[in-house]
Structures are given as structure tokens and as C-alpha cells.
Automatic annotation (TrEMBL), chains A, B:
Its EC number is 5.4.99.12. This is tRNA pseudouridine synthase A. The lineage of its organism: Bacteria, Bacillati, Bacillota, Clostridia, Eubacteriales. GO terms for molecular function: RNA binding; tRNA pseudouridine(38-40) synthase activity. Formation of pseudouridine at positions 38, 39 and 40 in the anticodon stem and loop of transfer RNAs. Pfam families: PseudoU_synth_1 (PF01416). The gene is truA2. The keyword Isomerase applies. The active site is at D52 (nucleophile). It comes from Clostridium diolis. Residues 7-104, 143-244 form the Pseudouridine synthase I TruA alpha/beta domain.
Length: 244, 244
């Protein structure tokens, strides 16, 4: 069988996340249905990440095995013409049979966008988290440094997943500011459940003065979820890129 | 009666436009309903523009007359708490009784955003117009100059509105480029029906080589709608600001 790799963009607003489930519209199911319509094959696709409901992706990666004769690069159009507007195949190609979107992944970059203004927000609300109290970006930037590196991030994880270790390496964490828009980029070799959203919630706790940048070191060492910040809503989160 | 001015932001994706109509969810009706809940008054609000379905606003202006005792600046919260997520009052204030959001307006700025890339687009599709063929931005920028000034813009108007004159003054028209995102800003003392969307469609016809910048002069003089470009979809359009 041939192994096809897909790069997928989607707007997660109207999805119950990536992973196929008995009820509810999911990205995985919508793509599998489109592939069935294109090839007649009932295949299962492997996604690089199981994004939650409301989370978006600029470059999610998936792969699937097929007996179809459609050339690798032609799957893009064949699937796209059968997809709803909120999911798009950006690229398709045939890859070696040992490629697995999830297990072959070496790391990922996510972004999270906050709009920091007093006034309520409607324009772009599916993609932005509105935070009304003034945030100190310089303190937040200083705090980023404490996250970078190989650490046990169990304080920044929601329960609900079975994993062997809570140690991960954050390669990069930085903030871009454009007017009242604050965009946080984070790259790691892997992420614990809700890890990005809890790190962002913790950065907000630093930005509003409830924590100091230096506290991050202690929270990581202590591993106490309660001392970290809240898990911010999914809509500000975008899976930007997956590395192999 | 007191006259209250509102500045309104809305995501037009799930609205049948601004203006109240017998059927369909409109921004005007949603705000009037919220005001009724806040004051008990069945009022009618005047909007600065009658935006079409799918068009968004960063700073739409409206006004209404009220006997309520709510202070001018407190209407914002009083209305916001009764509004759905896709409409927000950004500011409310009491103004002199001769202020009318539509008739007092001296001009408006709209923006229209195109994503110019071959790949299909899903992320942000409610706010962006996807155009897949390569656009020559320099030619489009050169064409902008021919639109600026006081002209008869009947070639850039859809039928369906009753107006006295088709002459308008475009004060400013320019393009910002950021990667594959092309953002067109246009400011005029007033706009004909679909004028912004037809001007954008005409700029696209220049960008893809079907027209030359110099042709704009002739199209304006001739006033022939058929020689101008298509009316691009509403979703890329944002009412940015109204001037008084």
C-alpha cells in the first residue's frame, strides 16, 4: 500500500476537535469521508495532534495508507473538492511507508493570540482571546525565558491523558506585539494535554502582576498545577507547524 | 429626548446584513432588541451604513433617541450584556440632538483583504477573500491613483438603490501587503451600492493583467459597468471608520 502525507489547514470553530468520535463533527471524520468519496476506500488517517474543539491549524499533518491509483500530489484536489469550506488540504505527497504523522514528529509550533483591550471583542472572536485588563508584556517576555529548556512540565498539564513522562523540551517561546494584539509562539518536542493553553494562562498571570517571572522556576520545580495559571480558551490557539 | 451615539463592532458572518428586515437575523435588530431589554423602550436605531450580509464592521456608528435615564457612557455595558458574541458596543455617549449617524457622516473608510495564494484557504475564510492567481501589486497600486478624486463612479455600482447622484470623492485608496495578504483601504465621502467590492474586483482585473492601470480613466469616463471588474464577495470587507 502507498503512504500519503497531507498538510491540512482548518478553522476549528465549528468542529468538535480533530479526533473521530461517535457523535459530533470532527476534522478527521470530515477528511476521511472526503477520501472515501474520492477513492471508495474506508481508510483511517493518522493526525499529528489531537486538537481540541475550537482549536485551529495552519499546517496540521496527517497520513494514510491507500490502494488508490491517484498520484500523491493529486490527492490535494481530489480531497479538497469534497471538503467543506473550513478544512483545506494545502499539500499532498507520497512518502515512504515508515512515515507516521504522529510518531515521526520531532516537534511542533503553536501560536496563541490575545487581544488586550478594555472594549468587548467581536471581530475575529473565533481566533482571538479577549483579555480586558492591562498586561505587562515586558514581564511576560522575561517569564518566557524560564520556560525554555528541558523540564518536567506536570504543573502545566490538564488531567485526562495517559503518558509515560511529563518531561518536555521547549525550544522556543516568544511574544510578538502588534498594537493591542499579543501573539505567543511556542515550539517544543511535544506537548502535554492543554500545555500551551496553561502556559499562556500562566503568562497572563505574570502580565497582570499576580505572579513574577521568577516564580516560574519554582512552579516548574514544585510541579503544582494550582500555582500555574488558568487554561485559556481554545479559540486563540493555532497549530502552526509540525516538524519531522 | 436624549440622543445616544454608539460605536459598534460586529462580525457579519452570521448576519443578513445591518438593516432590519421581516425575516433573518440583522445587526440592527439584535441591537434594538438588546436596547429594549435594557430600557423597555421599543426604539429604532439609525445606522451610518446599510452593510450587506457577510460584511463586517470595526467601527460602525449608530444613534437613537431615548427617554431612559441610563447615563450616555453606561449604555455600552447595559447593551453589551444583552448582546450575542458577534456584536459589541465599543463606545456609547450622549450627543446633541441634531446628530444623525447617517446624515451627519462626512465620509467612511473600508478595508478589503485578499489572500493571494494558490492553496485553498480555510483559516480566516469569514474575513478573507481567497484569490488563487498571481496578482501584480505594483500595477494595482498604480491603478489606485486613477480612482482618487471626485468622479462619477456609476461604472462601479450595482443596481438596486435610489440615489440622486453617482458622483463621489475618493480621498484615499492604497494597498498594504504582508506576505500573501493584500489589504486595500479606501476612504470616500460616500459610497455607491457595492462600490468598494466592484473597485476591488477591478483592481484584481488589473493585478491579473486583464486590464491596465490607464484603463481606469476610460472606464470612469464611459461609465460602463461591464468594463469594470466583478463584485467580490462580502466577507473580505470591513467598515473600518465613519467620519463626522
Amino acid at each position: 500500500m502507498r503512504n500519503i502525507k497531507l498538510i491540512i489547514e482548518f478553522d476549528g470553530s465549528n468542529f468538535c476537535g480533530w479526533q473521530r468520535q461517535p457523535k459530533g463533527r470532527t476534522v478527521q471524520k470530515v477528511i476521511e469521508t472526503a477520501i472515501f468519496k474520492a477513492t471508495g476506500e474506508e481508510i483511517m488517517i493518522n493526525g499529528s495532534s489531537r486538537t481540541d474543539a475550537g482549536v485551529h491549524a495552519r499546517e496540521m499533518v496527517a497520513n494514510f495508507l491507500t490502494n488508490s491509483s491517484i498520484p500523491g500530489d493529486k490527492f490535494r484536489e481530489a480531497i479538497n473538492t469534497r471538503l467543506p469550506e473550513d478544512v483545506s488540504i494545502i499539500k499532498s505527497e507520497e512518502v515512504s511507508e515508515d512515515f507516521h504523522a504522529r510518531y515521526s514528529s520531532k516537534g511542533k509550533t503553536y501560536s496563541y493570540t490575545i487581544v488586550n483591550r478594555y472594549e468587548r471583542l467581536s471581530l475575529g472572536h473565533q481566533y482571538l482571546y479577549h483579555y480586558k485588563y492591562k498586561l505587562d508584556i515586558n514581564e511576560m517576555r522575561r517569564a518566557c525565558e524560564y520556560f525554555i529548556g528541558r523540564h518536567d512540565f506536570r504543573a502545566f498539564m490538564s488531567p485526562g491523558s495517559s503518558i509515560k513522562t511529563t518531561t518536555r523540551t521547549i525550544q522556543d517561546l516568544y511574544i510578538e506585539q502588534n498594537g493591542n494584539e499579543i501573539k505567543i509562539f511556542i515550539t517544543a518536542d511535544g506537548f502535554l494535554y492543554n500545555m500551551v493553553r496553561i502556559i499562556v494562562g500562566t503568562l497572563i498571570k505574570i502580565g497582570n502582576g499576580k505572579l513574577e517571572a521568577e516564580n516560574i522556576k519554582d512552579i516548574i520545580e514544585e510541579g503544582n498545577r494550582k500555582k500555574a495559571g488558568m487554561c485559556v480558551p481554545p479559540n486563540g490557539l493555532i497549530l502552526e507547524k509540525v516538524f519531522y
